[in-house]
Design goal:
single chain; six-stranded mixed beta sheet; five-stranded mixed beta sheet; 10 helices; binds zinc ion
Length: 378
Amino acid sequence: MKKLLVLLAMVAFGLAVPFIGNKHIVTKNPSHLDIDGNFILYDFQKTNRVGGGPDWDYNLKPVKISERVYCFFGERDMPTKNNAGSMSNICYIKGDTEWIAWDSGPSDLFAKQAYATIKKIADMPVKHEFISHEHDDHWLGNHYFKETFGTHIIGPHSINVNYYGPRLHVKDEGHPGATGEVKDYPGMQTRMIKALYQNAIRGTILLPVDESPTKHSTWYNISGVKMEYVEAGYAHSEDDYFLYLPDDKVILVGDLVMNGRVTSNRDGQVLAINDEGKPEGQIPAIDMIKRRDWNNIVPGHGFLVDKHGADEAYHYFHEMKDDVLEAIDDDVPQGEITKVVTLEDFRDKDLYYLLSPGNVYRAYEELEMYEEPDEDED
Ligand SMILES: [Zn+2]
């Protein structure tokens, strides 16, 4: 009996140790402190977060893709505190007298640190930026470019609508409701603004885009670089674009293509017939990309940049479509679909367990309405 009491006392002491050690630590709101004692913001707040401590070091190294294209490759992961949002691929195109940016990354500091390494290759300003889509791991560095170079930002109008429209009067000529007035409302909420340490997200201010082409394909010739900026439409997000450089045989495709990891189709669609009777979605978007002549592709996430860089995305969406349609035909209910359609070929890809079931579930919802067109359209 005595032995048992001693044993129980020891167990109780063991359980109490973590609390004994910490009892003198008092924080008013511990969930709002990051590792540097900076705040992590989960509430809407209109002030820009400044914080203390040294800037986050993204440790960025540009990779040369072709003669004029350099890219930074992010981790194949979700935005986490350990990558500070550096999980997407961002590129710079070397013109004769300026750099052209393809996306700007997850924060002001990311853009600043990426540019500092690019400047060592050629000391030229960033006068133009093209944006792939509205997800915030791709464009939160815009303010750094704008403030530093007065960069002209070309991107989807959905950024202005979804991140500014209801909350802010945007200097946004040519669109209904534009007032020509800009209210200083920095640090608006996106995933990154909420999730990153202050010493990574500090100084990040959301900026609307300056120009949104509405044609399917728009050609630019900037600083000696010929580029086709193509609106693929509602595919990975509400409005996706890719940038094709025919002279360089390079295509920059944002999140329309990923490799080595499973995509997130939470805001996207696989294949639908749009109001104009044309197919729109991930499958037609990848077809548009495959129709161009290129040697190198830079996906929004992933490291494969050769001629096979788009294959994985192509197979993922085709298999998903075929398997889900077959399951619908077999009267598999939506609640069972992720047990039936498991896309085995992709099980070893990063983020498979986190994202693939959600993609399949969503595809079911979407493809239930789908009717195969009678003739093949091109
Ligand atoms: Zn995205």
